[in-house]
Amino acid sequence: MHKLTTNSPTENGQIANNLAKGYLAVDNQTTNNHGTTSKAASKATSKATSKAASNLSRRDILKLALGGASLLALGTGLVSCSAPGASDGINSGASNNNTGTDGSADNAYSGGDSSSQQKYSLVIGQATEPRSLDPAYNYETATFTTTNNIYESILHYTPDLKLEPGIAKSWQAIDSTTYVYEIRDDVTFSDGSKLTVEDVIYSLERIRNPEVATNTSWMLDSVDTILKTGEWQITVHLNTPDATWQYVPATSAGQVISKKFTEAQGKNYGQPDGQTLGSGPYKLSSWTQGSELVFTRNENYWNSEREIVIDEVTVQIIPDDNARALAAQSGQLDFVIGPTADLIDQYLASGRLKLSNTPALQHLFISFNTQRAPFNDKNVRIAVSHAIDAQGIRENTVGDYAQDAGALPFSSEGYVIGKPSQWQTYNTSLPVYDYDVKKAEDALAKSAYPDGFKTSLIVRPGTNDIAQAIQANLKAINIEVELLTVTNEEYYAYVYGSKFDSDGIRDYDFSINRWVPDFPDPVGILQPMYWSKNIGAGGTNFASYSNPTVDDLILKQQASTDNDERTELIQEAFAIAAEEAPYKILQYNNNLTVLNAKYEYQLSALWLFSFSPADFKLAD
């Protein structure tokens, strides 16, 4: 999956609209301070401020935040990625003044009935605010934590990444191009109006509408027609077999809105000065730009079987990593996705928060520009891959908050089609290009540059420490690396193919990237990163990798609905690519969250489209 940063793929309009099946994720939920602020400096800041932290007002913390540029990664833009930094639009009228001394606002919620039943609230801290609460633009962490509160999709992902009923109570593939969905007849929107089949069709067709310019329109590229074929039934006909279509109804592209309400709102729909309407467990109560969004329980929520603990959700926008940690330490935040590794001790210092560190479907890697010298030479790519101490980099940057990588660009969490044991055996059969200076020297000697060369590495905010380690590693084999520090906007322009040299080739030598797939399927990485179609403008083939056989295998697996057959085709494609080393996989990143110890919740390996505070429970 995953969104990334000050300017995420979805925030970079022209690039976002052409985004291909996935999105990059940045280093946790970081700002430009990550990688430029040392651990010692962070600890010093913590020591100097911890005594006063409990006395800081939210306005004080936000003032601190203004000094840092926000980088969207997992929490601002994971991964998924990222989003733009919040403005200084502090409005005390909508601030969360109800938060209790432990930040949980146990007795503060004033909505619903006035009985003595305990009410619970959750305060989420994140670096950036959503640009919209329209599900058409729900494609970054800043929106996953907000828009997902309001809407529900046709299907859902289970915690173990399987598909389950959502707005549709059942579904089936009639053949490789025909999918039938039976829609529930008991779903209501938060205003009490009934959700209809027409609303479902409208929602999907709206994603396809080029005038809407959604970030997920590509997910429906293979769709021919979406028809009402029964009172509560729709049938989707594809113009070509597409193995990834099965997942689309469980993404934000499958979130359902009210046709009547949305058309009445027009361009204001989902904006701070407009309104929203969904069938989810919460509804928007207020949105103070640059400050916070408040969601309250949907009293008309149709699913009475869902046991919901959280009555009110507040999302506070705090761009700076250190300020966010201070807010959590002082009791003003209950939940943060992707805390910066250097600041985790500070988050946990108060004892009221606990850390969750679980495997995820995301990886950190280096992309070699295979169409430009010197990395158009396979032996150079192999030499550099052997020269980089990936394990040492992991240990010295994020420690146990990531896993050492194997040959595949995903961990065992991605073994979701075929047999996991088959994937495990297959993974060990691929070349790894582990850290070995002698092997690096031997490969370089076979290349067109036996005596070494000079090159440049694109460095985005939050990856300085990793880039410096790579620079030192490569110096050992006489490769001189210039570190080109760029803004997040510039980074996206480079890696998403908006900057080309005079020969029409992506204008960089190599870069550091992170990727989170949109689908719980190996093709969610294979297709965007290895398909030659994605080399051009807006594409996500960061290595400009092109192999006709790999392209053919991608198309063959796409046309198959047999997962065993698809597994064989996908593995064959990865095996060919592994031999050619267009990427160096550095590590598999984990999902990191800090949460008020009174609650229980764990992000799934691919949580982007399934995150909901409605799934938080009280701790035992």
Key structural traits:
4-stranded antiparallel beta sheet; 620 residues; disordered N terminus; 12-stranded mixed beta sheet; globular; alpha+beta; single chain; 17 helices
SSE topology:
Blueprint: H1 13-17, E1 23-24, H2 39-53, H3 58-65, E2 120-126, H4 141-144, E3 155-157, E4 163-165, E5 168-175, E6 178-183, H5 197-208, E7 223-230, E8 233-238, H6 259-265, E9 282-288, E10 292-297, E11 310-317, H7 321-329, E12 335-337, H8 344-348, E13 353-368, H9 378-387, H10 390-397, E14 402-404, H11 420-429, H12 437-446, E15 453-459, H13 464-475, E16 479-485, H14 488-495, E17 510-516, H15 523-530, H16 548-558, H17 563-580, E18 583-596, E19 599-600, E20 617-618
Parallel strand pairs: 2-11, 2-12, 15-16, 15-17
Antiparallel strand pairs: 1-17, 3-4, 5-6, 6-8, 7-8, 9-10, 10-11, 12-18, 13-17, 13-18, 14-18, 19-20
Helix pairs in contact: 2-7, 3-7, 9-12, 16-17
